[in-house]
Amino acid sequence: MIQTLQDYHRLVEKLCTLAHHYYVLASPLVSDEIYDQLYREALAYEEAHPTDILAHSPTQRVGGEVVPFLPKQEHKVRMWSLDNVFNFKELQEWLKRLSDFAKAPLESFVCSPKLDGASLNLYYENGQLVSASMRGNGVVGELVTHNAKTIRSIPLKIPYTKPIEIRGEVLLLKEDFKALNAQRLAQNLAPFANARNASVGSLRQLNSSVTAQRKLTFYPWGLGLCPRAFNSLQKAMQEVQEWGFLSLDFVACSSAEEIQNTFDAFSKKRPNLPYEADGMVAMLDDLELQHSLGFTIKAPRFAIAYKFATAEKCTKLLRVINQVGRSGAITPVGVLEPVSVQGALVSRATLDNYTQIQQQDLQINDIVVVVRSGDVIPKILRPLKELRDHTQKKITPPTHCPSCATALQAQALNVCPACNLALLLKNKPNFCPKCVRFFQKPTHCPACASPLSSQQQKCPKCAYKVGLPRACLECGGDLIYQEFCYRCNLDLRERARGLVCPNTSCPARVQEGIVYFASKQGLEIKGLGDKVVAQLLRVGLLRGVADLYTLKKQDLLTLEGWQEKRADNLIRAIESTKHAPLWRFLCALGIEHVGKGASQVLSNAFGLQVFNATQAQITKLKGFGSVEGQSKIASSFVGYLQENKTLIETLLGHIAPTAPHIKEPSVGGFFAGKNVVLTGTLSQPRARICTQLEQQGAHIQTSVNKQTDYLICGENPGSKLEKAKSQGVQILDEETLFKHLKNA
Ligand SMILES: NC(=O)c1ccc[n+]([C@@H]2O[C@H](COP(=O)([O-])OP(=O)(O)OC[C@H]3O[C@@H](n4cnc5c(N)ncnc54)[C@H](O)[C@@H]3O)[C@@H](O)[C@H]2O)c1
Ligand SMILES: [Zn+2]
């Protein structure tokens, strides 16, 4: 928000620059939504300080300068701009202002799509098209009759013979725009940034044969000079259509709610419309009333543009802080001047990595474009360098972890710094250094063109070997391994890397690890979000995930903000994870590359023996992306288990994840294929014993039944012992149990 006169002057200068690029040069520097946002900031200041208003402020004038290279023409009746609203509340406010001004309730409106093209004013006399002029500054516009005559949807003759101005929008239909850009690319010409620019550029051509090739379309939306006493805009437009013009949707509405419904319907239809629309125009239908309500300095009072919501906003980047993830990766996060994006106040947004910051030359105090799409974390897209005001400061990457002060290490990025595509193994095709060719794995069989899945080594139809070639197909030379981004082809070898804190006991990493363990992706422990984890770490009740299982209600009750019920709930929530499915437990560990899918495959393949599975066994699993006998998932999983042996053992001492029964145990022995029940107190945690039994192919049952083979009986056995005896189930004491386990 601008506060001072100096800020206001600066903003007006920026807006003038942007408007010049948009209207005159037809090459906008920023998106419309960003322009609209800045425009509104100026407007808000002007409303609060009317005496400060600069006469050249874009809020005070229609459009831009008329371009000098075309003849000028004065409009018979002035042309206008439109004021904007962006939501229902603003629509209601406009309606209220309007009825207050009219001193009567207003009930008859028409709504039409707001076409995003170039305004054109057609003047007819004796039924003949005499002139066509662009809007220009509203009073005078560029005369482009020679070009208008090449547009087939503009009738050169109409049956109405009195002098009349018919106004509408010249645009390129989406299809025609696509074709035009494809053609320009083929001719090595720069493509147009959007259909509006292309339409404006095409209309301003000196040589009308260029315009004629561009397939422009004209839709009428209103009248200027008009001797005939029409009383309804909708009826007038129907009649215009009968004179040979295309028809635009005009929907009659009688209240704010109906206008809103029509807007919602247009928004839904928008992707399927043949043209680009950036909103909807709502107008009073009664032309006489329109006339009597008149105009503000640049726009009619009787009409409003209701703009489609967009996910983009701009705001100032105040500073950058560094977040440490559970893997130690440092993510720079931008602290922003709060801005409302799609109804949510955004004050922080992620910046991905420092390579990107450097590539974009992002600086502190830059005005940045922020997006929020769906429930994804807001993201800073890019800085608006045109709006720099000499207060900008460079951003330097950190050298030490903000949490534990360990020196940071560089690590391969997991996203492409240029286009942000997640980088997977497949981003390593072979590369021939001699003839500079990439060899990517084919998506279709080169021999018979059958489609291939990414895993296939041979074509399913003709059995042609479709893996990567070992030698260059052009020159036969050796291929080298090179990393590059699949989408934008950026060579990633020399790129700066991501930063990581290598300290596994870094407090920030530990905290993130516990939060993840308790999150929806992990064991879903309700009531254990980041704030609670931070508190428990701070007071020393937690040092790692394993401590969750020794947390006591009494300890929680000594902490600030904890009452009986809250403590009970948390303890119960933790307790309830003790028999969580094994795959969830694996997932909760947050091992790199081992997400939900991989955890499920691992759990189904190995059951509780997964903790003993070898890298070679895991690599063989279907879908584990084995490339030349290497699987990222397998090495990451096995590596994690080796490094965290004690942690896993401690966790399995507390909890016994439920695993699917593996019918064919990989290790045979006394318990292979047997159903086993445990009762009484044993000298080792029950979960650990269960794990060992399952590793030998036993199936652990919770109660004794006819299928039970053995009952393992510790001290103070429960009723299970009686039941086992009555069913004739063989009973083993602890000593025998361990003997058999050892012998296996
Ligand atoms: N990106 C930039 O840098 C930049 C700079 C300046 C302006 N702009 C954009 O231009 C807009 C402001 O331009 P403006 O003041 O000329 O207003 P406008 O172009 O948004 O609205 C007025 C125009 O809408 C057109 N229109 C389309 N469909 C219509 C319909 N159904 N009924 C009536 N009119 C219809 C008419 O040509 C009319 O002149 C801003 O909202 C902004 O998004 C962008
Ligand atoms: Zn650290």
Automatic annotation (TrEMBL):
Binding positions (NAD(+)): D32, E33, I34, Y35, D36, S81, L82, R135, E169, K307
Residues at the catalytic site: K114 (n6-amp-lysine intermediate)
Alphabetical UniProt keywords: DNA damage, DNA repair, DNA replication, Ligase, Magnesium, Manganese, Metal-binding, NAD, Zinc
Family annotation (CDD domains): BRCT_DNA_ligase_like, LIGANc
UniProt keyword Nuclease present: no
Enzyme Commission code: 6.5.1.2
Residues at which Zn(2+) binds: C472, C475, C488, C506
GO molecular function, one term: DNA ligase (NAD+) activity
Pfam families to which the protein is assigned, alphabetical: BRCT, DNA_ligase_aden, OB_DNA_ligase
Names of the cofactor(s): Mg(2+); Mn(2+)
Catalytic activity: NAD(+) + (deoxyribonucleotide)n-3'-hydroxyl + 5'-phospho-(deoxyribonucleotide)m = (deoxyribonucleotide)n+m + AMP + beta-nicotinamide D-nucleotide
Domain of life: Bacteria
GO biological process terms, semicolon-separated: DNA repair; DNA replication
Residue ranges constituting the BRCT domain according to the UniProt record: 666-744
Function: DNA ligase that catalyzes the formation of phosphodiester linkages between 5'-phosphoryl and 3'-hydroxyl groups in double-stranded DNA using NAD as a coenzyme and as the energy source for the reaction. It is essential for DNA replication and repair of damaged DNA.
Family, as annotated: Belongs to the NAD-dependent DNA ligase family. LigA subfamily.
Name by which UniProt lists this protein: DNA ligase
Biological source species: Helicobacter ailurogastricus
